[in-house]
Amino acid sequence: MEKLLDLSVLKFIAMGLAIGFGVVGPGIGLGLATKAIIESIARQPECEGQISKYFYIGAGLIEACAIYALLVVILIGFVL
Fold first, then answer.
1. Which of these, 10, 12, 26, 33, could form a disulfide with 66 (CB 3.0-4.6 Å)?
2. What does pTM read for this prediction?
C-alpha cells in the first residue's frame, strides 16, 4: 500500500514538472514575439495588418508547444 502511494506522489510531481517546464519556453517565445510585433508596428504603422497576420500564425505555433506539454501531463496522469 505504501509503494502505491509513493508512485502516485511521484506521478503528481512528474505532472507538475512537465507542465511547468513545458510552458516556460512557449511563454518566453510568445513574449518575445509580442515585443517584436509591437516594435515593428511602432516603426511602420501602415503595415499593421500584414504584420499581425504573421504574428497570429506564429503565436498559434508557439501555443501548440504548450498544448503538447498539456498532452504529456494528461498522458502521465491517466495512462502511466
1. 26
2. 0.78
